[in-house]
């Protein structure tokens, strides 16, 4: 294959890639090459722009570390994460909707008893969270694993803090025999996604802000049900309509109810105002 030009290069690459025995890889690479070449043709990409793109992707890779996932931020801010989530979790009406996973989930976070304080000592406004896990038939789901993670009241996750060797604002609890769960923590605030790297520069160049509305992350697993990765957002909060990563869904917005100082749901007394959240999750049964 010689003398390839702007008209013949795409077909040449597709033909070369057709040698693979992996049908799915073939399908994915064919689509990728076709769209990448169409993009370059459509915008008439210059050499300087191509170089800038390579430099950008290099910087995205270079800033990645075990606690910094710039490629996920790139996917999130380009809306790719929301697209992939949406097309992989088409569910019947009434199921709790999924949203983006984000880069701050940590494997093996600590297991807690129901009622525990998942903030593990974070300062902030106390928050009592409770709810139920059930299915579309209204049946409760006992022993569901409910993993929670959240930012603190300065908008930072534990993993973003240097030298912190304890988990704070994350943990796993298990629903009881009636599918109920409850725990306490602190109220998380809105936060900007990490924007001191190449993705931050991209947002700035596009005149976009990096903020996410206040939310609490959940990942719920139970045998016989599709895994649910989602958030619960704060009704009336800032950035609900301009989330930097396009993750907000109306059905996931709930009232975080403020209470004056006094008796708290765990039977204690708070000298300060505190918040409660009541939110039920509906899992999608896996068809067999
Ligand atoms: C998060 O909510 O943790 C998150 C999601 C996408 C990008 C950055 C953070
Ligand atoms: Fe988050």
TrEMBL record:
Coiled coil: none
Keyword Oxidoreductase attributed: yes
MF terms (GO), sorted A to Z: dioxygenase activity
Keywords on record: Dioxygenase, Iron, Metal-binding, Oxidoreductase
Pfam families linked to this entry: Dioxygenase_C, Dioxygenase_N
Domain Intradiol ring-cleavage dioxygenases residue range list: 129-157
Cofactor(s) this protein cannot do without: Fe(3+)
Database matches in InterPro entries: 1_2-HQD/HQD, Catechol_dOase_N, Intradiol_dOase_C, Intradiol_dOase_core, Intradiol_RC_Dioxygenase
Similarity comment: family membership: Belongs to the intradiol ring-cleavage dioxygenase family.
Name the record gives this protein: Intradiol ring-cleavage dioxygenase
Originating organism: Pseudomonas pudica
């Amino acid at each position: 294959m010689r003398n390839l030009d702007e008209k013949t290069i795409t077909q040449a690459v597709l033909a070369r890639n057709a040698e693979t025995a992996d049908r799915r890889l073939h399908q994915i690479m064919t689509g990728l090459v076709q769209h990448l070449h169409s993009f370059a043709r459509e915008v008439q990409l210059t050499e300087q722009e191509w170089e800038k793109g390579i430099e950008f992707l290099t910087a995205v890779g270079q800033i990645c570390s075990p606690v910094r996932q710039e490629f996920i931020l790139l996917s999130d801010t380009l809306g790719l994460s929301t697209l992939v989530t949406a097309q992989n979790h088409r569910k019947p009406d009434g199921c709790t909707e999924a949203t983006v996973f984000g880069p701050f989930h940590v494997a093996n976070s600590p297991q807690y008893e129901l009622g525990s304080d998942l903030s593990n000592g974070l300062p902030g406004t106390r928050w009592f969270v409770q709810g139920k896990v059930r299915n579309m038939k209204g049946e409760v789901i006992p022993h569901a694993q409910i993993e929670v993670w959240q930012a603190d009241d300065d908008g930072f996750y534990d993993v973003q803090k240097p030298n912190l060797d304890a988990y704070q604002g994350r943990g796993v609890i298990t629903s009881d025999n009636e599918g109920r769960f409850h725990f306490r923590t602190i109220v998380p605030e809105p936060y900007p996604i990490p924007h001191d790297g190449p993705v931050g520069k991209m947002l700035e160049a596009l005149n976009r802000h990096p903020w996410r509305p206040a939310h609490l992350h959940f990942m719920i697993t139970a045998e016989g049900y599709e895994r649910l990765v989602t958030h619960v957002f704060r009704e009336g909060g800032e950035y609900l309509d301009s989330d930097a990563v396009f993750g907000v869904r109306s059905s996931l917005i709930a009232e975080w109810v403020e209470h004056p100082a006094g008796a708290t749901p765990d039977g204690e007394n708070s000298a300060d105002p505190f918040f409660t959240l009541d939110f039920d999750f509906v899992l999608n049964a896996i068809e067999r």
